[in-house]
Specification:
Shape: globular
Structural class: alpha/beta
Strand content: 15-25%
Strand order of the largest sheet: 2-1-3-4-5-6
Low-confidence stretches: none
Length: 190
């Protein structure tokens, strides 16, 4: 089986770092899949599920999943619902607890809809052989205490990288070499 790398985006769409990750991973010989889900008001579990169903046959025990923000919760729900497994999971600005923003009602709606259950959290721990959670001390979206709790919730290796924000469009982050390093550290099965 070859390793497919899935780059799952969050609420605001595909972050800039995914373009860089895709190029770097292709140089290493990986098959990179970047499903394009509807952003913002289109962040609806059933709609996102239909999109990923088109790629489900490529998800196997050799797959690598990189998910950003609410995309992490989507992956947990989807994997649990479809009894899927992967070799490696890397969460970027991941969270599994609900929190609200003032004046961002649609984002609050999406977070409620994608909120994972305790069963899904427990299930996910057994669905990915290795789990990592990368987060920052200056994330402008997810509260720091929730970012810190997330790796504990899924038994992931926590990786704090200072001053990279939420790793989305507003952060200005263009690359994240630590993701490539983690993939290399966990074997380059292609």
């Amino acid at each position: 089986m070859s390793s497919n790398v899935f780059l799952i985006h969050g609420y605001n769409g595909i972050p800039k770092i995914y373009g860089w990750l895709e190029q770097e991973l292709k140089k290493l010989g990986y098959n990179v899949i970047v499903p394009k889900f509807e952003p913002r008001e289109g962040v609806v579990y059933e709609s996102w599920k239909k999109v990923l169903n088109n790629y489900k046959k490529y998800i196997n025990e050799e797959s690598i999943i990189v998910a950003h923000s609410i995309g992490n919760e989507f992956v947990m729900k989807y994997f649990s619902e479809n009894d899927l497994k992967a070799k490696l999971y890397i969460g970027l600005a991941g969270f599994s607890k609900y929190f609200e923003w003032e004046d961002k009602q649609d984002l609050n709606r999406a977070c409620k809809e994608f909120l994972v259950t305790e069963r899904e959290l427990k299930s996910f721990k057994n669905r990915c052989t290795k789990r990592y959670s990368i987060y920052s001390n200056n994330d402008h979206i997810v509260p720091f205490n929730i970012l810190q709790e997330y790796p504990k919730d899924i038994d992931a290796i926590p990786i704090l990288i200072e001053n990279i924000g939420h790793m989305g469009k507003k952060s200005g982050l263009e690359e994240i070499p630590r993701v490539i390093e983690i993939i290399k550290e966990n074997g380059e099965n292609r």
